[in-house]
From TrEMBL:
Keywords: Leucine-rich repeat, Repeat, Secreted, Signal. Pfam families: LRR_1. It is found in: Secreted. It comes from Salix suchowensis. This is Leucine-rich repeat family protein. Its main location: secreted.
Length: 223
């Protein structure tokens, strides 16, 4: 996995971390006031877990995350990330725990994400999502999907209309917005239909390990 990074006293731009042969990658909380999430490339085939929680990350998620097709954990909770969920997340067929909570994501929750066959925990609370479809509603009823404190009409526990209006009056669109509709695992790349569970690999996925081993250390990257 490749990111980019530059550090100053008051602002850090998260730019380049290379881990081509490692099964998991974890960026622990730093003291920086802001870190910009910019690019992902050269994704290793064996990467199983990505933990970037509580790191003041900013920006939009890139479509390349969809190449993590063996990952079982992706956690970017507690940052300042924004934009819609990339449709490339439909390729995360082994995903077990997906945490995007406590950020500034918005837009409809893609049905193809809620249709991922192995999800046991999808946390999208404390964002600005605006809509969920039938597949997502099923996950809410099963208590797999948490969408509290968003902007979804008709659901309990949402933000106030005034709070949602204030956010949408100031939010900025993601650069290269077309890439958010790109699905790298699908022929043609921009198919409109959603992936269904029976189209996805049902091979056993590895059990998550890093949550149990995570020890906070400032400015320390565990690889």
């Amino acid at each position: 996995m490749c990111f980019s990074s530059t550090t100053t006293n008051s602002h850090s731009t998260f730019q380049k971390i290379s881990a081509p042969h490692l099964p998991f990658i974890s960026l622990l909380p730093t003291t920086s006031s802001a870190v910009a999430f910019q690019e992902v490339s050269a994704v290793p085939e064996n990467l199983l877990e990505v933990l970037f929680l509580n790191n003041e990350l900013e920006g939009c998620l890139p479509y390349e995350i969809g190449k993590l097709n063996k990952a079982v954990v992706f956690d970017v909770g507690g940052n300042k990330l924004t934009g819609p969920i990339p449709h490339s997340f439909a390729c995360l067929e082994k995903m077990d725990r997906l945490n995007l909570a406590v950020n500034e994501f918005y837009g409809p929750v893609p049905e193809m994400v809620c249709d991922l066959p192995r999800l046991t925990n999808l946390s999208l609370s404390h964002n600005y999502f605006t809509q969920v479809g039938p597949m997502c509603m099923k996950l809410i009823k099963k208590k797999i999907l948490d969408v509290r404190m968003n902007c979804i009409l008709g659901l309990p526990g949402q933000r106030s209309a005034a709070e949602c209006a204030k956010f949408f009056s100031k939010h900025k669109p993601c650069p290269n917005a077309r890439s958010l509709s790109y699905i790298p695992c699908r022929k043609g790349g921009f198919s409109r239909s959603s992936l269904t569970s029976d189209q996805q690999s049902m091979a056993p996925a590895a059990a998550p390990i890093t949550y149990d081993a995570l020890i906070p250390r400032k400015h320390k990257l565990l690889l």
